[in-house]
TrEMBL record:
InterPro entries in the cross-refs: Cyt_P450, Cyt_P450_E_grp-I, Cyt_P450_sf
Endpoints of the signal sequence: none
Source species taxonomy: Eukaryota, Viridiplantae, Streptophyta, Embryophyta, Tracheophyta
Isomerase recorded as keyword: no
Protein name: Cytochrome P450
Species the sequence originates in: Phaseolus vulgaris (Kidney bean)
Binding of heme, residues: 450
Cofactor or coenzyme needed: heme
TM region positions: 20-38
Assigned keywords, A-Z: Heme, Iron, Membrane, Metal-binding, Monooxygenase, Oxidoreductase, Transmembrane, Transmembrane helix
Amino acid sequence: MEFQPLGTTSPLQFFSNHVYVSSLLLSFTILLLLIAIVRVSHRKNIICSCETCQAYLTSSWSQCFHNLCDWYTHLLQTSPTKTIHIHVLRNTITANAENVEYILKTRFHNFPKGKPFSAILGDFLGKGIFNVDGDAWRFQKKMATLELNNHAITFFGFEIVKSEIHNRLVPLLHASTRNGVVLDLQDVFRRFSFDSICRFSFGLDPKCLERSLPMSEFAVCFDLASKLSAERAMAFSPSVWKAKRFFNVGSEKRLREAVEVINALAREVIKQKREMGFSENKDLLSRFMSTVHDDDTYLRDIVVSFLLAGRDTVASALTSFFYLLGKHPEVESEIRVEADRVIGPHKDLTSFQELKQLHYLEAAMHESMRLFPPIQFDSKFCLEEDVLPDGTKVESGTRVTYHPYAMGRLEEIWGCDCLEFRPQRWLKDGVFHPKCPFKYPIFQAGLRVCVGKKMALMELKTVSLSLLRKFHIQLVEPSCGNPRFSPGLTATFSFGLPVKVCEIGLEQQH
């Protein structure tokens, strides 16, 4: 065989060699995937003939249910213990409140997030608070709790939300009333919450809610990274996405490119803050930088985690809330009546104290998240073999999932009217009363309870109240049953939330 000197390969030969190498890599990737499938198929319980596993593997459940969460809810409702097993996934799923307390509090140390979960979200979230256990989690929780409970930063967040509402959200909806256009309210809320959380976390304004509705490269990449990270969890085996990641092909190549954009922006923002000085700035990154020194990767991971939590969950909760209000105008009217009584007709919200007095609004928001939690389920991994309070045995390495979406639909917890949207169930003599967090784990519970709960509720109530006192928001296509959801880390309506917006006249406000 003759070899040409280096640098003398003809274009045709170069092209042929390139195609040959690419084909070889593709063949090797396919071989690795086949090996992964064979390895997975030999695991215990991976070939299971039970009715539940067969329905999952063949997707026959979709003949009766639009959403996987609704099928799981049906199985959990009919289970005597409110616990089911998806053997092919090595996943124990529960809606039993005693089990939830056991997992999140009593035996917290035996049910961490676990390495499988950390691997799935590792490229996107790194070592941020939602993706770590042990000392790293404890340090970040302590730091976040100190900051988010600080009155100054809470006020800073409140001012950002009010500014975004006044300068962008309300003008956008006013314009839509004049033009008679159909708005995708879910998209509007995602833009609003992204602008707000970027300003709060980074001191950066992506301006996604400007009148022309631009979408910044950062927002696009953030969405893509979130979506593709969630798809990893749905792969037949972790070996599938890991092989694609190793060869940098397909969805893993797109994920890597998206994360690179996020990382580049984060590095630039951190660099600029160091150059300009951050001690006087109020955003979350600046406050963290005064505690974490010379570890830009760690800072990036912390802030990206807060971006994910503060953007997607808020947008999801607002979308569901206005979906339910569109089907229950009597609740919308009651919120306005309460606001006029507490704040005064035609007056804007000015303080946290006023928010605290809006008990019916608080009840309606909690009731909405009961039926449509922003995070429909959450998983842990069992370290050592254990037994749940309902008698369920859990082997080491098993994924254990608690399911807030299903829990909100259990008669045993909420009564025979559990499928109805009734804010009154949260009120006693007109005063809001919270429920047991292990029966309502929307913000998690126990040691990993959401440190941003107070901030999130402030934003949800402020936005809702501001819009409801100025606009009637009418669903374009009121659907029967539950909406369809897209796969993702948070609950997202597959077809958005198309609405028409009408401005409330002064005579109607009286």
